[in-house]
Amino acid sequence: MHKITADYIFTGNAAPIKNGIILIKNDGTIIDIIDPKNSTLSFDNVKKYEGVICPGFINTHCHLELSYLKNEIPQKTTLPGFVKELVQKRNNFSEKERQAAINKAEQEMIENGIVAVGDIANGNSTFQLKAKHNIYYHTFLEVFEIDDELAKSAFDKVAQLKATYFNKNQISIVPHAPYSVSKSLLKLIVSQENTIFTIHNQETDSEKAFFKEKSGKLYEQMAAFNPKVATWENQKDGSLAHYLPYFKNATSLLLVHNTYTTKDDIAYAKEQNIPIYWCFCPKANLYIENTLPDFTLFENENCTIGTDSLASNDTLSVLEELKVITENTPISLEKLIKWSTYNGAKYLNIESQFGSITKEKKPGINLLTNINLEELKLTQDSSIVKLY
Ligand SMILES: [Zn+2]
Predict the structure, then answer these.
(1) What is the mean pLDDT of each run of 10 residues along the chain (388 residues)?
(2) Which of 196, 251, 253, 334 is the most exposed place for a label (fewest CB within 10 A)?
(3) Interval between CA 121 and ligand 1 midpoint (Å)
(4) 57-316 sits in which CATH class?
(5) Measuring CA to CA, which residue among 6, 2, 3 is closest to residue 366?
(6) Closest by Cα among 145, 97, 102, 96 to 121
(7) pTM, full prediction
(8) For residue 63, how far is its CA from the centre of ligand 1 (angstroms)?
């Protein structure tokens, strides 16, 4: 058993404990967490760290399989431009290069204190590595097809891929984005046994015009892929109204990006009574769209953090994402740590092991250093050491 302490312990789901002490087994299982104010315990042999301690991070949105595209796609092209570049470049790499990039990216996540990942996949290139369980993964197999009549064949193709995965409890088929899945395809998606879902939501400004007016940059790009998109009905309430009503029975649904989500959209989403989580990937938003969501609109919602992929980010680090939010909003460190640990674990239904420093859990333990301790805020120089 070890005893460790730091200036503050952030447990993930409660107020920080000043000079709190964690009793922990060699394998990282928490024995106890003690507030020195209320304890007569002997504090001999306590290892003291400078900074704050928090649980292992949960990265709720990544595309590990795209790791080979690091530094390949120009920045600030907006989403339609990004997709165009991705389609052009994705065939320029060998399987060996892809595997090397995937392995390196996982190593980077481990070093950055990430213990669980919600990972989007279109193929099977990450399955072998995931079966080694270096990190906990829930894989989201992405499906898209605009044409209603082709919904079944598109779904069946992805279902075949799903059947080859090593653990059927940690995989679900999910819609790519509101503008790329027809209503028939949505019906098939929500009929699955595993109902942890995710979707890219309101990542680009032209998503609004796509649904409200059937026009704009995104609409034109999708119509070029398949003119059948013209048969879709207009949605005066925007993209959320196209898909949210289908997810009434979801265990949890993660909406990713939300860069152009408004107060009215949030209100509409809440009316649906679905366990919705809002995931932010600010560094990817800056990379692709050069803009950020209005985080303050979401302060009282269930939020999580994602890194997105190395195609649109230079790091896979939850801490680096939190720094961007800190620079741009007054949201407290306590809340940001809750978003990046406890909420992510709840979303992925893994809170029995991850997401909080609680007796008998094995959540991973991160030390964050170079913190502004007076204001309890991250700084540009904040860095991370994985302790357990
Ligand atoms: Zn994504």
Answers:
(1) 96 96 97 91 88 98 97 91 88 94 98 98 97 98 95 98 96 97 96 94 93 93 90 88 96 97 96 97 95 96 98 97 97 98 98 98 98 97 98
(2) 251
(3) 10
(4) alpha beta
(5) 6
(6) 102
(7) 0.97
(8) 6
